[in-house]
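Repro:
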Amino acid sequence: MNGTLLLRIATAIILLTHSVIGMFNNGINDFGNLFLNQIGFAPFGVFLAWSIKISHVIAAILLLADRYIKLAGFVTIFVLIMGIALVHFKEGWFVVGGGRNGVEYNFLLICVLLAIMYPNGFKKSAPKN
């Protein structure tokens, strides 16, 4: 167990709740059909939407298992950056309060994932003799 346990659990909960609910309320299909297909990803919008949500579930499992953390982090960060570029950037910074649907939540998740991936910072490893 390491110092990232609380962050890994919290991030896994966020990724799971953000994904699993959409699997049962048609949210993923709607995102694929009504958004991704409409902005140029047709006919792959639904496939992409499911791929994104399944990647979140897998990342959550890996975070909880403390395995392949960097792979899970890089994939999830890529998805979050694409979410910023395609959805949230045009809405501004704030998720609520000073605006709606902005980038601040994705920004925080990216920072948390980086903290999990690099718990000792971005230091170079000392050369081994």
